[in-house]
């Protein structure tokens, strides 16, 4: 099982996703680079946690869409 993300990671990731809506993908490494571009976060651990959370959110959205489409 994974660990619970702190609220500042979640809030920062959600704000980035709102601001730069179409910039993120399902690839963690691309998201890591994008977070580095869009922010001035120097700490690698924080940057990776934000990128990982964004990736996880996008994967969940895709899986939900697939479930809805298969139900229809």
Structural descriptors:
single chain; 72 residues; mainly alpha; Diphtheria Toxin Repressor, domain 2
CATH class: Mainly Alpha
The dominant shape is globular
Helical proportion, percent range: over 70%
Number of strands: 0
What multimeric state do the chains show?
Answer: single chain
Series of H and E elements: HHH
Mean pLDDT: 91
Strand content: under 5%
Question: Structural class per helix/strand content?
Answer: mainly alpha
Sketch the major β-sheet: none
Describe this structure in words.
- By secondary structure, the chain is mainly α.
- The protein has a single domain (7-71), classed as Orthogonal Bundle (Diphtheria Toxin Repressor, domain 2).
- 72% of the residues lie in helices and 0% in strands.
- The chain contains three helices and no strands.
- The protein has helices spanning 7-19, 28-38, 44-71.
- Helix 1 (7-19) packs across helix 3 and helix 2 packs across helix 3 (44-71).
- The longest helix is centred in the C-terminal third of the chain and has 28 residues, at 44-71.
- The relative contact order is 0.16.
Brief write-up:
With 72 residues, this protein is mostly helical. The protein has 3 helices and no strands. The protein is globular.
Secondary-structure topology with pairs:
Elements: H1 7-19, H2 28-38, H3 44-71
Helix pairs in contact: 1-3, 2-3
């Amino acid at each position: 099982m994974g660990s619970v993300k702190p609220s500042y990671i979640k809030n920062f990731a959600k704000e980035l996703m709102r601001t730069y809506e179409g910039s993120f993908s399902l690839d963690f490494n691309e998201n890591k680079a994008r977070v580095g571009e869009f922010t001035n976060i120097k700490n690698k651990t924080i940057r990776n946690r934000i990128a990982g959370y964004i990736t996880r959110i996008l994967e969940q959205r895709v899986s939900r869409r697939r479930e809805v489409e298969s139900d229809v």
